[in-house]
Amino acid sequence: MTQPVLEVRNLTKRFSILGGILGRTAAWVHAVEDVSFTVAAGETLCVVGESGCGKSTVGKLILRLIEPSSGQILIEGTDVTTLGPAAMRPLRRRAQMVFQDPSASLNPRLSAEQIVTESIENYEPLSRSARRQRAAELFVRVGLRPDMLDKHSFEFSGGQRQRLGIARALSLRPVLIIADEPTSALDVSVQAQVLNLLLDLQHEYGLAYLFISHDLGVVEHIASRVAVMYLGRIVELADRAALFASPQHPYTEALLAAAPLPDPRARSDRPVIEGEVPSPINPPSGCAFHPRCPYAIARCRTELPALRPLSDGRLAACHLRT
Ligand code: SF4
Hints:
The chain has 322 residues and is an alpha/beta fold. The chain has helices spanning 55-62, 85-92, 102-105, 112-123, 128-141, 158-170, 188-205, 216-222, 240-245, 250-258, 298-302, and strands at residues 6-19, 24-39, 44-48, 70-75, 78-79, 95-98, 176-180, 208-212, 225-230, 233-239, 308-309, 315-316. The structure holds iron/sulfur cluster.
């Protein structure tokens, strides 16, 4: 079997909440619980779920922007979970991030050329003119004009800023891109252009994408497979077509029912999700979805359903699915 670009094993992150006059841990936020998946070269795994489900935390954990409580992260077969800064350095360039808000993630004091080349400067002994040449080539590849290299990011439109963020992410020739809601701050007309650019780049360079999004329309456009998260856990992981055609977990079913339909006259017969997402500080016992699940049985309140393969090969965590 080909080695995946990214493998995540039993990843868990709990944040402590300090309280009392001694500042001791008073409670834990269960942000990510026992999450496992792989992403292959040329594949897009989309992670979806409501706000606060832990999907962005997964992305930050993989890049070690925050440290996991337990579990393993392997990039091209190397366990990066406990590597120190020096050992991590050559691997840092292999995984890059594209952020949600390009305005906030681009330094307004730097020129576009400096933004794209500052990582190259840290990692590759290239001359100034060779770095500029690399930046110009990247600009062309992401649909920007090389004569924009000397401009600053605030002189770019929203879509151009995100293209600049993508050029920066590509500057070290990574194998994995983690894209956290990369189109949600853009106008709808620009969203499709940026998504198609990401697909073209993936095709050209064989990139693996971990694509974090709450927008099921975007996910349906770009995903190879989809992992659905609820309160820090993956509850369903399936091929895109199978997931959208016949969601198996009741939460996935409810998410799809709540998504806007392409034809507003069409009506979904799926049950719509009700109630609020429970607090990750004190998640419900058993299946965390049971307070909102229309199919819950007594067992659901006491027994955590394992994420296991169903008859069609997808994974789902529900006592009622086989
Ligand atoms: Fe609903 Fe029970 Fe399945 Fe959880 S395990 S999704 S509560 S039926």
